[in-house]
């Protein structure tokens, strides 16, 4: 692949002065190696809706450390532990307009995942697990992420810079970032993630799988879907032959969710407002994609691939988060152009769970060095 915009590497990202230690492996080499050497057998016992019973998930995940979000999750689901507001296999969609804070909420949750639970007698509140990020729009800022990670550790620990840096480095070693160039590449990579873990993270449990953003290839995927629908209208075309790339992604995610039980985080654009909604909510523009709330469904195509997929194989949302900037409190926009030494932004999150009428609100304050909650 010669496209300069396409990064075929999966990186373990570490602080700037250690960049020469970055682990790098091409996707082509990854897929070849896992197909030839794979010896992984998923340990899956049973699945009921979004709640799993997995043989290897005796360890709990943890809290989101956003008080209102944790309260909502505890109130709307049967949790496996009072110490964790999240269950293995939860699926969370994070939707919002540009610069609404989606990636920063993702940073916050990823930091929860990869940091240790404590250091000596200090409670850090981390999950001490690995995290995998699919950076679809190539916007994951490792410099920014490391700054936020060290900012949180400094707030919680104080102490020496060397101890904070050492914990940050060990935490970052649990992070993997892939940058597929299309939804098809994304689906293939997810489908081989189990083999990748058995080879490269054999002693780590993957706590989070994140895709930022599900909408990154919306327009080429939509064009492909239109071609499928046009071909399907032909009487000579075999039915149920073509599946859109996004459907392959969702099927691969559901398979890995069942076998490994990570929390799945999906960021998504907010394009079309739900009419007359208060608070402001967005319709789902992706198809096929989970849309469990009234008035959020996209128009169903004439050739609906979901009709041909067994219901138990479809990915389902555990909860949905809609983000907005709180302009009454914000002093800057949450964008890559912001000077993080000067600006502070306030983010409002609205949390909904399918089949539950309650909507909870939470606030985030994003500063140059930290993401503050509650």
Could you characterize what this model shows?
This protein has 374 residues and is of the alpha/beta class. It has a single domain (9-373), classed as P-loop containing nucleotide triphosphate hydrolases (Rossmann fold, 3-Layer(aba) Sandwich). The protein is 29% helix and 20% strand. It has nine helices and 15 strands. The chain has helices spanning 27-37, 67-76, 102-114, 142-157, 161-172, 183-191, 193-200, 218-232, 245-260, and strands at 9-12, 23-26, 44-48, 51-54, 91-96, 118-119, 122-123, 130-135, 175-178, 206-212, 263-269, 319-325, 345-352, 360-366, 371-373. The strands form three sheets. The protein has an eleven-stranded mixed β-sheet, sandwiched between helices. It has a two-stranded antiparallel sheet with strand order 3-4. It is globular, with a radius of gyration of 20 Å. It starts with 8 loop residues before the first strand and ends with a strand. The model is unreliable at 1-26, 28-51 and 332-342 (pLDDT under 50). One of its GO terms (biological process) is DNA strand invasion. This is DNA recombination and repair protein Rad51-like C-terminal domain-containing protein.
Summarize this entry quickly.
With 374 residues, the protein is of the alpha/beta class.
Topology:
Elements: E1 9-12, E2 23-26, H1 27-37, E3 44-48, E4 51-54, H2 67-76, E5 91-96, H3 102-114, E6 118-119, E7 122-123, E8 130-135, H4 142-157, H5 161-172, E9 175-178, H6 183-191, H7 193-200, E10 206-212, H8 218-232, H9 245-260, E11 263-269, E12 319-325, E13 345-352, E14 360-366, E15 371-373
Parallel strand pairs: 5-11, 5-12, 8-9, 8-10, 10-11
Antiparallel strand pairs: 1-2, 1-9, 3-4, 6-7, 12-13, 13-14, 14-15
Helix pairs in contact: 4-5, 6-9
């Amino acid at each position: 692949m010669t496209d300069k915009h396409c990064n075929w590497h999966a990186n373990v990202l570490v602080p700037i002065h250690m960049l020469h230690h970055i682990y790098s492996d091409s996707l082509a080499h990854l897929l070849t190696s896992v197909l030839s050497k794979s010896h992984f057998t998923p340990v899956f016992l049973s699945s009921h809706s979004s709640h799993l019973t997995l043989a290897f998930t005796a360890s709990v995940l943890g809290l989101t450390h956003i008080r209102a979000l944790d309260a909502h999750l505890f109130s709307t689901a049967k949790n496996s532990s009072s110490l964790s507001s999240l269950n293995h296999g939860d699926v969370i969609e994070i939707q919002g307009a540009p610069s609404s804070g989606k990636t920063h909420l993702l940073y916050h949750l990823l930091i929860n995942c990869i940091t240790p639970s404590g250091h000596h007698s200090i409670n850090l509140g981390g999950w001490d697990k690995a995290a995998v990020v699919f950076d679809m729009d190539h916007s994951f800022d490792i410099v920014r992420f490391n700054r936020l990670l060290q900012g949180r550790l400094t707030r919680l620990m104080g102490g020496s810079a060397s101890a904070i840096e050492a914990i940050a480095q060990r935490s970052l070693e649990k992070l993997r970032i892939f940058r597929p160039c299309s939804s098809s590449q994304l689906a293939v990579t997810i489908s081989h993630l189990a083999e990748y873990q058995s080879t490269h993270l054999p002693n780590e449990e993957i706590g989070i799988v994140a895709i930022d953003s599900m909408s990154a290839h919306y327009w080429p995927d939509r064009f492909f879907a239109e071609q499928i629908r046009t071909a399907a209208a032909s009487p000579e075309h075999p039915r149920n032959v073509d599946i859109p790339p996004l459907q392959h992604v969702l099927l691969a995610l559901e398979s890995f969710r069942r076998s490994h039980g990570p929390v799945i985080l999906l960021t998504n654009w907010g394009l079309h407002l739900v009419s007359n909604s208060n608070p402001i909510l967005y319709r789902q523009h992706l198809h096929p994609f989970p849309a469990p709330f009234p008035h959020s469904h996209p128009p169903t195509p004439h050739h609906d691939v979901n009709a041909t997929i067994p219901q138990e194989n479809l990915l389902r949302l555990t909860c949905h988060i809609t983000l907005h900037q709180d302009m009454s409190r914000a002093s800057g926009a949450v964008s890559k152009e912001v000077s993080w030494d000067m600006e502070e932004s306030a983010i409002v999150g609205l949390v909904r769970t399918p089949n539950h009428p309650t909507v909870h609100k939470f606030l985030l304050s994003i500063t140059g060095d930290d993401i503050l909650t509650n």
